[in-house]
Amino acid sequence: MTATALAPLAVLNEVFGYAAFRGQQQDIIQHVSAGGDALVLMPTGGGKSLCYQVPAIVRHRREQGVAIVVSPLIALMHDQVGALEEAGVHAAFLNSTLTLDDTQKIEREMMSGRLVLLYAAPERITTPRMLAQLDSLHERGLLSLFAIDEAHCVSQWGHDFREDYLSLNVLHERWPDVPRIALTATADDLTRADIITRLQLQTARVFISSFDRPNIRYSIVEKDDARKQLLRFIRDEHEGDAGIVYCQSRKKVEETAAWLNDEGLAALPYHAGLDADVRKRHQDRFLREDGIVMVATIAFGMGIDKPDVRFVAHLDLPKNIESYYQETGRAGRDGAPADAWMAYGLADVVNQRRMIDESPAEEEFKRGQRSKLDALLALAEAHDCRRVRLLAYFGEESSPCGNCDNCLNPPATWDATEASRKALSCIYRFHQNRGQRFGAGHLIDVLRGKVTDKVSQYGHEQLSTFGIGADLSETQWRGVLRQLIALGHLRTEGEYNTLELTASAREVLKGEVALLLRVPSEAPKTSRSGRTGRVTKAGGGREKPAPIALDDDGQRRYAALKAWRAEVAREHNLPAYVVFHDATLAEMARDQPSSLDELGGISGVGAKKLEAYGREILRVLGEAA
Ligand code: ADP
Ligand code: ZN
Question: How many angstroms separate the CA atoms of 46 and 216, rounded?
Answer without folding.
Answer: 12
